[in-house]
């Protein structure tokens, strides 16, 4: 393996990292990605000026991501294999997806629309100031489905390829895309490298995520598959499209459509089929992400066990 670890070792560390995340959740006082975000902000303010903005964006990406990724590689190589599990825990966001969306569900069920609007604004970039319950339910379900890949499965994929350093590399790159990957006056040129690199790193994980959503759709597998094939090409993001379309099809709800950004209503392509999302669908989306995580862990454990059996060979 590129990480220097065997598949059985990676599988054990993968399970350990996910369990740490589920048990401990996000660090309460200082989150590594929050600190990284502040570093990235300083780098952007320093370099995002003058001419040659695309080249400056490449340099900024390298300064922000590569030193920390190399440091993670060296630390894991010298500190023992269990640091890989800790690095995965620091990067993965499975429990945080639930922790950030559960208050939205609670507020909507209690009829507290203002709190639901505020909490939803913490996890999406669209305007929620005047959003109604169906808008908030749709936003919550969409965020869970998309971030299932960005915060969970992409991290697991690159962990299996490069170990803890792979998880760090992916999450830092994904964070920069979330910060710089906008087509506006400030970031259209400077953030282009961050957006393209994130697209490349996400290409395989996004399609594995979409296929996982299809496999776990039960009787709705055909619908999830067709939604992926028909609807994903129309979505602006080449990776979010397959993930969100297959996920919406698996849930049997209609997502996409109108959303407000910077005070303007944007008509996005449709996702999924069925009735509009409700508060229950936020919970169902979280369960789909959780079950997909269990599926990935199960596959990794099975392959690891198979390798162990094959290496031992037939008994004498």
Automatic annotation (TrEMBL):
Q: What does this protein do?
A: Converts cobyric acid to cobinamide by the addition of aminopropanol on the F carboxylic group.
Keyword list (alphabetical) reads:
Cell membrane, Cobalamin biosynthesis, Membrane, Transmembrane, Transmembrane helix
Q: Where are the transmembrane segments?
A: 53-74, 151-173, 288-310
Q: Which gene encodes it?
A: cbiB
Specify whether Membrane is a keyword of the entry.
yes
Q: Which family is this sequence assigned to?
A: Belongs to the CobD/CbiB family.
Annotated coiled-coil segments of the chain: none
Matching InterPro entries, A to Z? Cobalamin_biosynth_CobD/CbiB (IPR004485)
Q: In which pathway does it act?
A: Cofactor biosynthesis; adenosylcobalamin biosynthesis
Where is the major localization of this protein? membrane
Q: Which NCBIfam families does the record associate with it?
A: cobal_cbiB
Name assigned to this protein: Cobalamin biosynthesis protein CobD
Which locations, inside or outside the cell, does it occupy? Cell membrane
- Pfam families per the UniProt record, alphabetical: CobD_Cbib
In the bilayer, the protein is annotated as:
Multi-pass membrane protein
């Amino acid at each position: 393996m590129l990480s220097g670890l065997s598949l059985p070792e990676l599988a054990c560390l993968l399970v350990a990292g996910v369990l740490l995340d589920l048990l401990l959740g996000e660090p309460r006082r200082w989150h590594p990605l929050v600190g990284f975000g502040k570093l990235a902000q300083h780098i952007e303010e320093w370099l995002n000026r003058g001419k040659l903005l695309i080249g400056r964006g490449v340099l900024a990406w390298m300064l922000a991501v590569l030193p920390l990724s190399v440091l993670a590689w060296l630390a894991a190589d010298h500190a023992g294999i269990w640091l890989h599990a800790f690095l995965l825990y620091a990067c993965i966001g499975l429990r945080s997806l639930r922790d950030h969306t559960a208050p939205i569900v609670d507020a909507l069920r209690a009829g507290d629309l203002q709190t639901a609007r505020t909490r939803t604004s913490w996890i999406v970039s669209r305007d929620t100031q005047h959003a109604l319950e169906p808008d908030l339910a749709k936003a919550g379900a969409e965020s869970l489905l998309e971030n299932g890949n960005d915060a969970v499965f992409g991290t697991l994929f690159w962990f299996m390829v490069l170990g803890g350093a792979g998880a760090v590399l992916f999450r830092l790159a994904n964070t920069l895309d979330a910060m710089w990957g906008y087509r506006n006056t400030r970031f259209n040129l400077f953030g282009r490298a961050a957006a393209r690199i994130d697209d490349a790193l996400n290409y395989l994980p996004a399609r594995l995520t979409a296929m996982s959503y299809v496999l776990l759709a039960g009787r709705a597998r055909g619908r999830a598959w067709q939604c992926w094939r028909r609807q994903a090409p129309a979505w602006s993001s080449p990776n979010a499209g397959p993930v969100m379309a297959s996920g919406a099809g698996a849930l049997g709800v209609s997502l996409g459509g109108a959303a407000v950004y910077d005070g303007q209503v944007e008509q996005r392509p449709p996702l999924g089929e069925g009735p509009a999302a409700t508060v229950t669908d936020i919970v169902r989306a979280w369960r789909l992400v959780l079950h997909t995580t269990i599926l990935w862990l199960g596959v990794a454990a099975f392959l690891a066990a198979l390798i162990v059996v094959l290496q031992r060979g037939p008994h004498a």
